[in-house]
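@channel sequence for tomorrow's demo:
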Amino acid sequence: MKAGILGLLNSTETPIDQAVGTADRDGREYQYCIQPSETIHPESLSKPVQIGEAALEVPERVDQKVIHDGNIVEESQTRTQTRHTNWILIPDEIVLVENSGGQFFFDLLASEYGYEANRAKLDLTSMRSDYAETELWQAGFYDRLGTAQKGVVYGEDVLDDSDMGDPLREAQINQLGFRYEYDGEQMKLTLTESGYIEIYQPSEFNSEDFATYIQTEIVRYVAGIYSGSS
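structure tokens (generated this afternoon):
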């Protein structure tokens, strides 16, 4: 994984075990499977990094038109959809899922293990200031007074732009992309206030690298729990 939604995890300090089960939600029965695949112990972290995947089968009723005895009628059928996500977990610290559709794993952590996982909100306004000397190639802003109240700007060193530099410094930031050197590697990444992080470079970044980077570089910018819809 090189991209995902960041969640804050309140749990025990031990890795999770595989879990398979059936539960009822909204009056419907579904199956789920939580499957850890690897536990790694990076030298730079005090806790292990666990990698795995999860799947959730959800029965859904679908209404459709059919021909029955020479008449067009509407019938309801039950179909099973399978939701799936890869995940990364550092016990009692963070959990990452591939995208917003993978947040069902947060619910499974609660129902199966009694853990609490919530999508993180990032303080990108502070991050913009801290990384102002790097090459900022993307900035999304909002809550600015004036004609340009919100938007997304792309380019090279966008804070130095003669037209948009000042607005970007004055506004709240909800998207941020930058390039800089980290641990001897050239990094290019993008983040959103709603906790989505994606690494573009280096291309060989793996799940262990991703988890280590998030824990050492990004977690300090967590500003609480994200309560939005995306």
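heads up for whoever presents: The first helix runs from residue 104 to 113.
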